[in-house]
């Protein structure tokens, strides 16, 4: 769909980071609720799979956090060409 070309005002790495954080929190809360509130086997299995999904999303947001931290450190440089490249990466255009 190439939304990064259509909506250039968004910082896509940060949006991906926020998506991972919210998904991990939602899956974690639902998994705890499924295990604590219901006692049948299907709810326990759903809780275990939910915890697995939480771990996957947490790993993803950790990796994205490292990329965003590198991105933000690179944006602190003083010269304008680096700032332009950083802006292009934020918009999803890659290296210019």
Automatic annotation (TrEMBL):
Protein name from the UniProt record: CKLF like MARVEL transmembrane domain containing 3
The organism of origin for this protein: Homo sapiens
Keywords noted in UniProt: Membrane, Transmembrane, Transmembrane helix
Leader peptide range in chain numbering: none
Main subcellular localisation: membrane
One Pfam short name: MARVEL
Membrane topology term: Multi-pass membrane protein
Record-linked PANTHER family: CKLF-LIKE MARVEL TRANSMEMBRANE DOMAIN-CONTAINING PROTEIN 3, MARVEL-CONTAINING POTENTIAL LIPID RAFT-ASSOCIATED PROTEIN
Domain MARVEL: 1-69
Transmembrane parts of this sequence: 20-39, 45-65
Compartment annotation: Membrane
Gene Ontology cellular component terms for the protein in this record: membrane
PROSITE patterns attached to this UniProt entry: MARVEL
């Amino acid at each position: 769909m190439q939304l990064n070309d259509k909506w250039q005002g968004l910082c896509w790495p940060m949006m991906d980071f926020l998506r991972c954080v919210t998904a991990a929190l939602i899956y974690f809360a639902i998994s705890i609720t499924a295990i604590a509130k219901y006692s049948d086997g299907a709810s326990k299995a759903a809780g275990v799979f939910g915890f697995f999904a939480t771990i996957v999303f947490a790993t993803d947001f950790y990796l994205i956090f490292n990329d965003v931290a590198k991105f933000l450190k690179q944006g602190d440089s003083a010269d304008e060409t680096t700032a332009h490249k950083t802006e292009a990466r934020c918009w999803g255009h890659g290296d210019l």
